[in-house]
Write a structure and sequence with these properties.
Dehydroquinate synthase-like, alpha domain; 363 residues; ADH_Fe_CS; single chain; two-stranded antiparallel sheet; oxidoreductase; 13 helices; alpha/beta
Length: 363
């Protein structure tokens, strides 16, 4: 049996990292950097980013991310590289995925990922999620290798909007349950092998840190404070969840997320928020015991993750809408097939409705 564990070349987590990017760039042996910067980060931290390269005398190209990780956006940046030998993705999940895709299509350039929030597990993976220009899920783009480096600025992340950290908790929360499903079904993972013991152990540790430290981290970040719990959750949301999902596998939770993107009401909600609701639906599909559901619903409420359809923008969804979500979630190219039992579109629609109803039953 072929087992594969994939990981970034280097994971770095410390305060002040955003102001030292040129030093990291030099350490990676690069001579010119192409910087893809999220528009919000550009407006707030441009001087910190640019001064690092100016002070070091490191050539760079600075480009503001257009908003969607689409084929059109990727092509735009690939055509503007101008001799750069490393691509930096600085910002949220979609700007990060764009940087990874640009490096891939440019012939395997080094890629350094600088998340400005611990809002998803995208940074460490060898995967980009491609959307249409209007925000609907299009396809997964498997890459040849993981990022050369992932650089986390703890101080910056602690000051990011609380909703981003909570979204990361939602994405990371799914990791263990999806990994467990893939282990049960002996699924092939995102990196083309079967789960290793190490990857599944990381998925379990991820869950322990998310549920054990999540509420404390949320309380601290609400005040812009950096505490040990915040540092633990940053690592869980980013490194452990990233390695856990990629090398253990995805299942119903992310497939349902992808289906939910077909409903316009969900577009204003973050990836991790929709994945979180999809995880509750996976627990329903798996007929998990009521005690498990009670524990997880209570955790969601404590940290602010959605437990109702209204909480992801589709409180008025019809049965036909939810069936459409189910049809997309059960598409052959998605990850629903990694569940250890058959799941139909109508099963998904029923689970989505049941999650909403359970919210009124579980105290």
């Amino acid at each position: 049996m072929r087992k594969v564990l994939a990981a970034p070349g280097t994971y770095i987590q410390h305060e002040g990292a955003l102001s030292a990017l040129a030093n990291e760039c030099e350490g990676l042996g690069a001579s010119k950097a192409y910087l893809i910067v999220d528009s919000f980060i550009d407006g707030v931290y441009r001087d910190d980013i640019v001064s690092s390269f100016e002070t070091a005398g490191m050539p760079y190209v600075y480009a503001v991310f257009g908003g969607e990780c689409s084929d059109e956006e990727i092509t735009k940046h690939r055509e503007a590289l101008d001799g750069s030998d490393i691509v930096f993705g600085i910002g949220g999940g979609k700007s990060i995925d764009t940087a990874k895709a640009v490096g891939y299509y440019a012939g395997g350039l080094d890629v350094a990922i600088v998340p400005t929030a611990a809002s998803s597990d995208a940074p460490c993976s060898r995967l980009s999620v491609i959307y249409t220009p209007d925000g609907q899920f299009d396809h997964y783009l498997p890459l040849v290798s993981n990022p050369t480096a992932v650089i986390m600025d703890v101080e910056l992340i602690a000051k990011a909007p609380i909703r981003l950290l909570v979204s990361g908790l939602g994405d990371a929360f799914a990791t263990y349950y999806e990994a467990a499903a893939c282990v049960r079904s002996n699924a092939t993972t995102m990196v083309g092998g079967h789960p290793t013991h190490a990857a599944f152990a990381m998925a379990k540790l991820c869950h322990e840190l998310v549920t054990g430290e999540g509420a404390k981290a949320v309380a601290a970040v609400r005040k812009g404070a950096r505490t040990p719990a915040v540092e633990s959750v940053i690592e869980a949301n980013t490194l452990l969840s990233g390695l856990g999902f990629e090398s253990s596998g995805l299942a119903a939770a992310h497939a349902i997320h992808n289906g939910l993107t077909a409903l316009a009401g969900t577009h204003q909600y973050l990836h991790g928020e929709k994945v979180a609701y999809g995880t509750l639906a996976q627990l329903v599909l798996d007929n998990q015991p009521l005690d498990v559901l009670k524990k997880e619903y209570r955790f969601f409420r404590t940290v602010g993750l959605p437990t109702t359809l209204e909480g992801i923008g589709i409180g008025d969804a019809t049965d036909e809408d939810l069936l459409k979500v189910g049809e997309l979630a059960c598409a052959p190219e998605d990850t629903m097939g990694n569940m250890p039992f058959e799941v139909t579109p109508s099963d998904v629609a029923a689970a989505l409705r049941a999650v909403d109803e359970l919210n009124g039953i579980i105290d």
